[in-house]
Amino acid sequence: MIRTKNQIRYDICTIPFNGGKGGPAVPLAGASANGMSNSFPKYSPDGKWIVFVQAQNGLLMRPDSALFIVPAAGGAARRMTCNTTLMNSWHSWSPNGRWLVFSSKWAKPFTEMFLTHVDERGNDTPAHPRPQFHGLQPGPSISPVPQRPL
Q: Are 8 and 37 in contact (CB under 8 A)?
C-alpha cells in the first residue's frame, strides 16, 4: 500500500506457492506501479487472466473506478470495453470463464448489475444491464416442481 497526500493506493502482487511455503510478493506488471490504485484482483477460472479495479484512490467510494484485464503472468493491462461511466467494481467470473458480472452506479444512485462476454483473447463486449437483478423487472422465480397424480 502506498499513501500519498490523503490518497490510498494499492498495487497487485503475486506470491509464489513454493510448496506451501510462499515467498516474496512480486508486483504484477500492468497492475502495479502505475500511479493508480489497483485492487480486487480476480483470476479467470482457467488462470489465464486477472480482472481488477483501477481508480485514483483505494477508498470505498471510487466514482472513477474501471475494470482492467491483464494476463495472469503480467503484461499490458487493458481497460475493458464493458466499463460504464461511473463506479465499476465488484466483479466475478462465470465458472466457464467466458462471462463476467460486475456492478456499476451508471444510471442510478444504487448499484446495478451488468454482464459482459470475455473471449479467449481477453476481449470483452459492451456492458449488458441485468435488470432482473436490480428491481427494474420482476426477478427470476423458482416454481415448485409439479407433482404427478398417484
A: yes
CA angle 52, 136, 96 (to 5 degrees): 40
> What pLDDT was estimated at residue 59?
76
What is each CA distance from 25 to 14, 90, 116, in whole angstroms?
6, 24, 31
Look at residue 78 and give its three-state secondary structure. strand
- C-alpha 146: how far from chain center: 39
d(CA 71, CA 1): 22
The candidate with the shortest Cα–Cα distance to 88, out of 107, 108, 105, is 105
- Residue 133's SS3 state is helix
Q: How confident is the model at residue 132 (pLDDT cuts 50, 70, 90)?
A: low
pTM comes to 0.81
